[in-house]
Amino acid sequence: MKKNVLVAGCGSIGKRHALLLNARTDINIRLCDPVADNMDSICKEIKVEKTFVNYKDALCEKPDCVWICTPEALHSEMAVEALKLNIDVFCEKPVSDNISSAEKIITALKSSRAKMAVGYVLRYTKAYSSIKSLLDAGSIGNLVGAEVSLGAYDTLTCAKSDFYIRQPYSLILTYTHEFDYLRWFLGPVKEIIGFSNVLGNLPEKPSPNVAGAVLRFEKGPIATLMMDYIRSPGERTIRLTGDKGSMYYSSCDRKIYLSRYGVKDIEITDVSEERNTSFIKEHDNFFRYIAGEKAVTITVEDAMETLMTAQKLIDYMEK
Ligand SMILES: NC(=O)c1ccc[n+]([C@@H]2O[C@H](COP(=O)([O-])OP(=O)(O)OC[C@H]3O[C@@H](n4cnc5c(N)ncnc54)[C@H](O)[C@@H]3O)[C@@H](O)[C@H]2O)c1
Fold first, then answer.
1. Residues 226-246: pLDDT tens digits?
2. What burial letters (b/e) apply to 282-296, b meaning 16+ CB within 10 Å?
3. Tell me, what's the pLDDT at 53?
4. Which atom of ligand 1 lies nearest, measured to the CA of 74?
5. Domain coordinates of the chain in residue numbers?
6. The ligand 1 atom nearest the CA atom of 162
7. Is the domain defined by 122-273+307-318 classed in CATH 3.40.640.10?
C-alpha cells in the first residue's frame, strides 16, 4: 500500500523533497504551508493528494510520515506534535534552532512508537562519502587537521521566506552541515571558539553574515572554519591533512585531490553527480529505516551533538 507523506513547508527544499518523493512509486504526497502560492508551485508539477494551510489539520488526517522543511525555529514543535501521534518524522537540518527545544524531541521520541531521522544530506553525496571512505582506508594516515570554507549568499535569495535573514545566527545554524561532516570525519569536538560580524554591502545582510571558528577535536586534530553569506555562486571546500598525505575537495570543480607524501603524482577523483542523487539516497535510507531494514544514518542524538557544537560557538561569539 502507498504511504501518505506530508511535506510541511513547501519552500526551496520542501519543493525538492516533494518532487523527488513523488517520483517514487510507493508515495502519495500531501502538502502543508500557510502560503498557498508555495504549495501551488508544487501542485503545478506533480499530482498532490491534499493540501493544508494548517499543520495540525494536516496531522489530524494521519499521514504515515511527515517531512519537516520549515524554518528551523518550527522544527521541534512540529516534530513533537507528529511523534505524539506516532507519525514517523524526517526533519531537515538543523534538528532545532536551540538545545532546549531539541531536548523536547528526544523526550517525545522516547514515548513514541514512531521513528525520526535528520537530513544532513552531504553524508549521502559522492564527494563527502568518498572523503570518508578515503579517510577510513587510512589514505592520508593519522589526521592532524582540517580547513573548511563555505560561502552561501544564494541561500538567502533562493528561499521562499525571509527566515534566514531574520533568524539570528542563521549562518551557523543552517550550515551545521559543516559541523556534522567535521564530526563524522574527525570525531567529537572538545572545544570551539570563533568570531562573527556583519560586513559588506550586499542587499541581504543577516546577522552575522561572516563567521570564523577554530575547533579542537577530542582525538587531537584542529580545524578552522570560515563561513559567509557573501560568496555567490556559493562554494564549499575542505582540506584535510594527515601524517601520510593530504586531501582537498572543492564544490567548484567537484574533484578530490589526494597527495601522498613521497608520491609525485596527485590522485584526482571526479566526484560530480546530479544534485538530486544524494537526496534520493537520503529518502531511501529513511524508508528502509522506518521499515526496520537498515540503521538510520543521522539519528536525532547525532544531530543534537552537532547542534550543541554550533550552540557553543554561538555562545562564544555572543560573549
Ligand atoms: N539539506 C539541505 O541541503 C537544505 C537545503 C536548504 C534548506 N534546508 C533546511 O530546510 C529548512 C527550510 O529551508 P528553505 O530554504 O526551504 O526555506 P524556505 O523559506 O524556502 O521555505 C520555508 C517554507 O516553510 C513555510 N512555512 C512557514 N511556516 C510554516 C508552518 N507553520 N507550516 C508549514 N509551512 C510553513 C514557508 O511558507 C516556506 O514555504 C531549513 O531548516 C533549512 O536549514 C536544508
1. 999 999 999 999 999 999 999
2. bbebbbebbeeeeeb
3. 98
4. 31
5. 3-121+278-297, 122-273+307-318
6. 19
7. no
